[in-house]
Amino acid sequence: MHVHAAHSAYAGVYHDLLRVSSTLDALRNAGTGDDPGVEPYAGAAMWGVRFALAMLHRDLPCQPPPPHGDRTTEKLLSLCADWRDAALEIGEFAPEPVLRLVTGETGAEAASTQEA
After folding, report:
1. Which of 5, 11, 33, 42 could form a disulfide bond with 28, CB atoms 3.0-4.6 angstroms apart?
2. Is residue 108's pLDDT more than 80?
């Protein structure tokens, strides 16, 4: 592929990613009313796209900077991981357990405690 053609192709992808990032950011910030659980997914996808923008911008300095230009790639990866955890409900975003383990009580003791 000719160098100019490759540059044009990457510039096109870069602008597509800018639009996708903007759309995902709007979805993340808008909330969804009936389905509030979608924001973490939009956030995880947005930060992934923004990381891709940061990588492409290194070869496309003639293009406008990404909307997160003050963040390092390490910070972007950290944000990707945090939002992924929120979307998948893992790590610090894991839901609290519904059941709790009670040790040291027998069935009769537990029943008398509940009756009291």
Report:
1. 42
2. no
